[in-house]
Amino acid sequence: MERRTGWLVVLGLLGAAGVARAQAPESAAPAAESAAPASETPATAAPAGEPAEGDREEPVETGRIELVPPTPVTLPHAGGTGRFRIANTGTGELTVFSVDPRGTNAMPAPVGFTVEIEGGVPFTLRPEESREVRFRWDPSTGRARQVLSHVVVRSTDRANGVAAVAVRSEGGAGGVVRDHILSWIVFFPLIGLVLIFVLHLQGSQNDDTVRWIALICSAVPLVFGAFLWSGFDPIFGRADGNAGMQFVEHGVWIPGFHIEYYLGVDGVSISMVLLTVLISFIGVIVSWNIEKGVKGYFAMYLLLETGMLGTFVAMDFFLFFVFWEVMLLPMYFLIGIWGGPRKEYAAIKFFLYTLAGSVLMLLAMIALYFNSDPSFLVDGTFAPHTFSLTELMANDWAGKELTLLGFAFTKVLWIFLFVGFAIKVPMFPFHTWLPDAHVEAPTAISVILAGVLLKMGIYGMFRFNFAILPDATIWAAQGMAVFGVINIVYGAFCAMAQEDLKKLVAYSSVSHMGFCLLGMSALTPQGMNGAMLQMFNHGTITAMLFTLVGVVYDRVHTRDISKFGGLASEMPLYTAFAGFAFMASLGLPGLSGFISEALCFLGAFPVWQKLTIVAASSVIVTAAYHLWALQRVFLGKFNPSWRTNKYLEPFGGRFPEINLREMVSLAPLALIVLVLGFYPSAILDLISTGMADLKDLVEPTEVVQAARGAADALSKVAVAAR
Amino acid sequence: MVGDNLQSIRWFLPETILIVAVMAVILWDLFAPRMRAQGAAGIAIAALLSSAVLGFVQMRHDPRTIFEGLVAYDPFANFFKAFFGAVTALIVVFSMSTTEAGGGRSKGKGAGEFYSLLLVITLGMDLMASARNLLMLYLSLEIVSVLSFVMVGLRSADKRSSEASLKYVIFGGASSGVMLYGMSWLFGLSGSLSLPAIYEAVRAPASSEAVFVAVICVFAGIGYKISAAPFHMWAPDVYEGAPTPVTAFLSVGPKAAGFAMLLRFFSDGLGANDPGGQEGLPWAVVGGIVAALTMTIGNFSALGQKNMKRLLAFSSIAHAGYMLMGFSVFSDLGMRAIVFYIAVYCVMNVGAFLVVHVVAEETGSEDISAFDGLGARAPLLAIAMAVFLFSLTGLPPLAGFVGKVYLFASLVKVGGTGYMTLALIGILNSVVSLFYYARVLRAMFLTKGKTAAALPVSRTYGYMLAGLVVPTVVLGLYWPPLFDLVDASLTFVR
Q1: How far apart are CA A431 and CA A425, in angstroms?
Q2: From the CB of residue A332, how many other CB atoms can be counted at a distance below 10 Å?
Q3: How far is B459 from chain A (nearest CA, A)?
Q4: How far apart, in whole angstroms, are the C-alpha atoms of residue B246 and residue B48?
Q5: Given phi > 0 = left and psi -120 to 50 = alpha, else beta, which region is B313?
Q6: Which chain A residues in 256-275 lie under 8 Å from chain B, judged by CB atoms?
Q7: How far away is chain A from the Cα of B494, in angstroms, using its nearest Cα?
Q8: Distances in Å between the alpha carbon of A29 and those of A24, A33, A192, B61?
């Protein structure tokens, strides 16, 4: 802008400010009179100037509660005590019924968190009286290592019948990183994104720097993930407190809309977090030979990694949704710019399909929010509605007996959420985006797509459909099983028909995710554990498969099965890896795929006998297409026209063997597949408690059901008695 | 109520500043020896920003009515004064280097007209947001409309511009006529032109069918301004033919003023926001049908467009449809959602038009094909456009997503089959909109351009784009300041 116009603007602004200030004193008086009463949260005291209600004749209780101090209390990590006072600032009597740590029978407060009040409850306070409450946090008495809870005070106060003070334990001596390990894991790749952007602004043309930045920014979350694994307590469940979540980070993000920044891992998500950090790291190694647009590629890649990690650890629905959608953007560009011949079609198809599912999820999220029970945000403020997943899990949705669009609320929402996740799984008939996206995406992106993104659909079903809407899950279980079997059978037959090696692997993914659906729909411990294990195993196996396809595509730029043959004599080491991967994929006993598939069948057979028989029979088809592809590509006669192929000219007409970089990307996965084939407890131990808690929600055993019902009835009576 | 007209001027300061600035711009244009265009622009920006700051400061004052009750002075009106001042100032900076506004080849010719017209339109918009009287509503609407007709036709050498202007005149004239007819019926039913009297008459109407017909006619006029279906037909041609800065202005300024007028008319004149205020009168159903129609027509028509400005015009229609969802429910949350969405929509839309303008200046074409290869030619420009397009689609973590969440939340909060169906239509429309926004993305990033030469972006435009991208991203992550401001503004003087 010209300098003189700039001066005119400044003068004008000064003039406006002067006029505004001249106006202000005149209107200060009327402004003060009309000062709107500040809208305070009910948990804090009302202003003292309000007229007392106690002027009426009848002795109506008009006590008013005030918790002093109302702010959240932080206790030391190793344990400590805190106190607050309950004061009656009203003009009548105030009877306090209970002062407890916040929790229900299903989701109790951590074991070491106790509250005591002198004289016990109930007690009555006269006006201006107060009583002290002491609470103690002693982590040595239970398994919980942190407490993020409230002390809930129930009284006869008309406005704040249920008030709370928030209590949290500060981090341990681990320092900034170890206390917020999940945030570091999720957001560390963004540091790489910022660095790459800075490099771009500086006009740097050095692609190698970008590659190493990406590698380091993927390696660091891997290291953090290893630390997470070592610090994860496998036996910690919902009964131990904190809703079964570990490494919790919980803060308020948007107070007005009751959105929180809530991260945590439990048995359901730990294996996925570990899978994601591993596959992302390997993906960077696989992407090393991207030549054009390296900066943009790795920038999008790191953003994608943040989105994926965030989805698995987010425990607030809004936060989860943000991370879920954040994944779509980079995927569109990664497929659309660095993909194969039909990349634009594949990219927009993927984007549109997934967005359609996501907006249904958005509607379900808002509907759940507005119909949720009141609760407290982590800092003690009262929230009439909530997005927090642990709170939503605690709501009895079936008991609310709501309707939506004329049907049962829970069923409609279950379907909305399920469609959103089913598109990701991908479940027949929402699977048509997968073959296109997988085939056209560059190798590393296929690895990530198949290795991690598909798992998000199943994870979402566990975390939302199963945990929040268990009654509707029981209603829909048979449908899930049927679709799972369709996936298995249809996917297998489609894979057998493929001529493109990558498309064959894509359809095999469709088929393998069907095992997850079948296992989880049975709602048995083996089935659900099998589904979770299958997610992890399939992630590693399919990552290997796509990397291997990428190896041969890099060399000769074709994946047509019919053109190959006899590669075993050209690339023996590559054939060894490929053979191993194919065997793992078809479920050879001794490798990890077998254990998870067997668990799924074991879990599903008692419940869906016929469906499991059909699914188990199709294992023959699975073996068939794998072995057939193996035979056509690696065994048999070598096609001599390869000797004069233009791509093999620099190598003298011979196929170059698999190189060190490619082996480095395959070796960790192969090792994991091998180890888990003999020692699946490595993962099963991590997940079993979390899955047991989940299974409890969906189909509680008689004993648990009776106990929970009795306890909840008691607490209802206590609340109704005030 | 401040009765005396002279006394009311004290409460009319932002508008007075604009009036003085109009005269100053004209005088400057006539007598300034040098720097005709820049000086006029500077005066305009100074006046607009002052009126914006004043409007913002005045939000804290008591509500009152001025000019014998014709004009309202309440937080709602003052919020929009601040909003219009800021938006128009943005447009002035946008247009400073264009030929219609005296930059570039014109060497200062036309600057005075352009900026004075903009200032008077802003005055009209301020009045649209403050009017409490049917005649005042009509007058302010006409000020904005008639001068918009002129501004659309400013590119006098371009036949499309004149054609667009004529189409706008015809359509605007017809709509205003229908609106006036409806207003005459409301006058007949209530015996008065002021909104509170109409409110009383509508409580116990002589004939509720007459009220319905009258309000539909008035809605025709307002609907034309906000480009709601079926009064949207002018938008694509006018947006395409007008100079790009004028198009950007039309898509945010008068549209927002139309929504302000809609909110005040239905809330104060018809009591749509009162508890139970919608019984007996089918505003919810009418609003719902109009919203669904507008969204669907806007999104599906945009699918086939090849011209960027036409595409953004249809997208603009669709966004009016999303906002009309909040109108259909007309709850407290619904009204806040509309105003919040207006604010974030302004940022995204002006940004998108700015990028279109920059590309059109360099390549000479306003087609989508002009964007081919932009990712390689001007990466930051393409990234900015991607941010705006994703925000318009409603993807987190951008501001457009938050706006859409509030609109859907207002529907779901009330619940019921009708509103949930509308919400379903809304979300499906969002998915459809991705398809045509992605077409632009595909051109920018996935298609090779005709040349690989870098596309120069002037520093002013660069800063403006940065200034628009940053709120789009930041408001998507932390929006309570804006929402609290919107919340504070939704107080009408009764």
Answers
A1: 8
A2: 28
A3: 9
A4: 16
A5: alpha
A6: 256
A7: 15
A8: 9, 6, 54, 10
Give a yes or no: residue B395 inside a domain: yes
d(CA A326, CA A312): 13
Q: Tokens in use for A263?
A: 């991260």
**What count of other Cβ atoms lies within 10 Å of the Cβ of residue A292?**
10
Average pLDDT over residues A571-589: 93
Average pLDDT over residues A427-437: 93
| Contacts of residue A623, Cβ cutoff 8 Å, sequence gap at least 6 | A586, A587
B368: alpha, beta or left, given left = phi > 0 and alpha = psi -120 to 50?
A: alpha
* In-domain check, residue B443: yes
What's the CA dihedral at B486, B489, B490, B493 to 10 degrees? -170
Q: Quick one: DSSP state of residue A160?
A: -
The more confidently predicted of residues B252 and A123 is B252
Residues 6+ apart with CB under 8 A from B361: none
| Cβ contact B53–A16 (<8 Å) | yes
Nearest partner of B168 among B123, B217, B231, B114, judged by Cα = B231
Q: Rounded to a whole number, what is the distance in Å from the CA of B384 to chain A's nearest CA? A: 14
**What is the extent of the structural domain holding B487?**
295-494
Chain A interface includes B38 (CB < 8 A)? yes
Element (H, E) at A133: strand A130-137
Strands annotated E in A174-255: 246-254
How many angstroms separate the Cα of A655 from the Cα of each of A355, A647, A649, B323?
Answer: 42, 9, 10, 61
Contact A363 B435 (CB under 8 A): no
Does residue B191 fall inside a structural domain? no
Query: Cα separation of A652 and A644, whole Å?
Result: 9
Half-sphere exposure (Cβ direction) of B402: Cα atoms closer than 13 Å = 28
Q: What is the pLDDT of residues A516-563, one digit of tens each?
A: 999 999 988 889 999 999 999 999 999 999 999 999 998 888 888 988
- pLDDT in the model for residue B312: 95
DSSP string covering A627-686 = HHHHHHHHSS---GGGGG-GGGGGGTTSPPPP-HHHHHHHHHHHHHHHHHHH-THHHHHH
Spell out which residues of chain A touch residue B424, defining contact as CB-CB under 8 Å: 363
How many domains are contained in chain B?
Answer: 1
Secondary structure (DSSP) of A12-27: HHHHHHHHHHHHHHHH
d(CA B48, CA B125) in angstroms, rounded, equals 12
Q: Which residues of A touch B412 (CB under 8 A)?
A: 363, 366-367, 370
Q: How far apart are CA B216 and CA B214, in angstroms?
A: 5
Angstrom distance (rounded) from CA B236 to CA B310: 5
Cα separation, A115 vs A606, in Å, equals 46
Instruction: Tell me what pLDDT residue A46 has.
Output: 35
Ordered alpha helix ranges (H), A463-524: 467-468, 470-496, 501-521
User: A173 vs A149, A238, B178, CA distance in Å?
Assistant: 21, 25, 73
Under DSSP, is residue A571 helix (H, G, I), strand (E, B) or coil? coil
CB B147 within 8 A of CB B138: no
Within a domain: residue B125?
no
- Tokens linked to A357: 């599912």
**Residue scoring higher pLDDT (A493 or A704):** A493
| Cβ atoms of residues A357 and A423 within 8 Å | yes
Question: Three-class SS string for A50-101?
Answer: CCCCCCCCCCCCCCCEEEECCCCEEECCCCEEEEEEEEECCCCCEEEEEEEE
ipTM of the complex: 0.93
As a residue count, chain A comes to 722
Q: What is the 3-state secondary structure (H, E, C) of B328-351?
A: HHCCHHHHHHHHHHHHHHHHHHHH
Q: Render pLDDT for B58-84 as a digit per residue (tens, 0 to 9).
A: 999 989 888 888 999 999 999 999 999
Taking the C-alpha atoms of residue B96 and residue A1, their distance in angstroms, rounded to an integer, is 9
Tokens linked to A396? 């009895």
